[in-house]
Design a protein that fits this description.
Keywords: Membrane, Transmembrane, Transmembrane helix. Helix content is 45%, strand content 29%. The protein is built from one helix and eight strands.
Length: 146
C-alpha cells in the first residue's frame, strides 16, 4: 500500500522536471529568435531615418544650388531619440559620393545611405532627436543636433 504513494509522488516530480526542461529549452530557443527580430527592426528603422536625413541633405543641396551658394539654408527634422530601446548616432561623411552612416549602440548595427550632392559636404555628426542640416556661404553642408 505504501508503494502507491511513492509512485504518485515520483510521477509528479518527474513530470515537473520534464516540464522545467521543456520550458527552459523553449525560452532559450525563443530568446535567440527575439534578438534576431530586434536587430532586423533596428536595421529597418535606421534605414528609414537615414533616407529621411539624406532627403533633407539633398533638398538643402538643391536650395544652395538654386541660390548660387550665396545664402544660408537650415532644415530641421524631429526624429526619435531612441529606436527599439537603443540610442543611435548618424554621421555625414565626405565623398564622392557623400555617405550618411547610422550606428545603433546596443546591439551595434551600422547602416549606410549614399547622398548625391553638388555642394561640398563637411564631415559632421548628430544623435537622435532634432537633426538640423545647415549650409552657410562660408561653410559646407553639415548635420548637427538642434
Amino acid at each position: 500500500m505504501t508503494d502507491r504513494a511513492v509512485s504518485s509522488t515520483l510521477n509528479y516530480v518527474l513530470s515537473l522536471g520534464i516540464m522545467a526542461v521543456l520550458v527552459t529549452g523553449l525560452l532559450s530557443a525563443g530568446g535567440g529568435f527575439v534578438e534576431d527580430r530586434q536587430e532586423e527592426v533596428i536595421r529597418s528603422e535606421l534605414e528609414v531615418i537615414g533616407q529621411q536625413i539624406a532627403s533633407d541633405v539633398q533638398r538643402a543641396d538643391r536650395l544652395v544650388t538654386a541660390g548660387d551658394g550665396n545664402q544660408e539654408v537650415t532644415l530641421s527634422q524631429s526624429l526619435p531619440e531612441r529606436i527599439s530601446g537603443t540610442g543611435y548616432r548618424l554621421s555625414l561623411e565626405t565623398g564622392p559620393p557623400a555617405e550618411l552612416v547610422l550606428r545603433s549602440n546596443d546591439p551595434e548595427i551600422s547602416v549606410s545611405v549614399r547622398v548625391q550632392t553638388t555642394t561640398h559636404v563637411a564631415a559632421s555628426n548628430a544623435g537622435g532627436g532634432t537633426v538640423v542640416v545647415t549650409y552657410t556661404s562660408s561653410d559646407k553642408l553639415k548635420v548637427t543636433n538642434d
